[in-house]
């Protein structure tokens, strides 16, 4: 496989407060890559035609590597792993690799709505828009988050991945989910219920790549 050389040009389109933009940035930092951030907010239309040519659905993130454009965070992570030098981020063991893929799908299907769209969005972003948080939505989100995190706790406890011995795409995908979820106080309290996951996150959040990619709590300047 041909690895990209140092003279390549990398640009990442997105906005700092996006979960999936955070995930994509984390992969680039894990590989120690330099890249340009091009601000692109899908909720601030109209989007320029040149961006819609890169991403026909007008979402984020999109990675442009020289003349190659790629969207969808999971695809970006796999591309960065395969193209740029560094230890493989996909386990060689078939069961561990399958568990990694399962975790990434689990987060997209069962965690993003309760944890991010309900708890994080209502508690952190609604006040920035001058709106009161919807407490019923937060309570519903916490119930869903509890179920999702229980499933993640079981995966961490199993030890095939998220084992603090090596970093895989599962670590890079999960990190921003938990990072955002513990910004509201309810997330901090809930995470304590899951000791294996809590230990993993303490380890992961202290890694240089995780600290470099973390955007911090959203502010009005991000809006």
TrEMBL record:
Please give the GO cellular component terms listed in this UniProt entry: cytoplasm
Q: Which PROSITE patterns match?
A: GST_CTER, GST_NTER
GST C-terminal domain residues are: 93-223
Q: Which UniProt keywords apply?
A: Transferase
Q: Does Transferase show up as a keyword for this record?
A: yes
One MF annotation (Gene Ontology) recorded for this entry: transferase activity
From what superkingdom does this record's organism come? Bacteria
Name the UniProt record assigns to this protein: Glutathione S-transferase
Organism lineage reads as: Bacteria, Pseudomonadati, Pseudomonadota, Alphaproteobacteria, Rhodobacterales
């Amino acid at each position: 496989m041909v690895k990209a050389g140092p003279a390549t040009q990398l640009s990442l389109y997105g906005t700092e407060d996006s979960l999936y933009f955070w995930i994509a940035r984390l992969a680039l930092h894990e590989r120690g890559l330099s890249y340009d951030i091009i601000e692109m907010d899908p909720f601030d239309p109209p989007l320029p035609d040149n961006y819609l040519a890169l991403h026909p659905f007008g979402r984020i993130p999109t990675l442009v590597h020289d003349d190659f454009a790629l969207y969808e965070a999971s695809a970006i992570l796999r591309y960065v792993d395969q193209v740029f030098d560094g230890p493989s981020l996909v386990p060689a063991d078939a069961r561990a690799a399958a568990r990694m893929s399962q975790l990434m799908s689990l987060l997209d299907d069962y965690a993003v709505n309760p944890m991010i769209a309900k708890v994080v969005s209502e508690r952190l972003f609604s006040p920035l828009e001058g709106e009161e948080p919807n407490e019923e939505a937060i309570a519903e989100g916490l119930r869903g988050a509890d179920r999702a995190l229980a499933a993640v706790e079981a995966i961490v406890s199993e030890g095939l991945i998220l084992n603090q011995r090596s970093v895989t795409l599962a670590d890079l995908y999960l990190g921003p989910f938990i990072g955002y979820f513990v910004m509201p106080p309810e997330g901090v309290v809930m995470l304590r219920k899951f000791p294996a996951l809590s230990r993993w996150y303490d380890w992961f959040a202290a890694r240089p790549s995780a600290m470099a990619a973390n955007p911090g709590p959203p502010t009005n300047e991000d809006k």
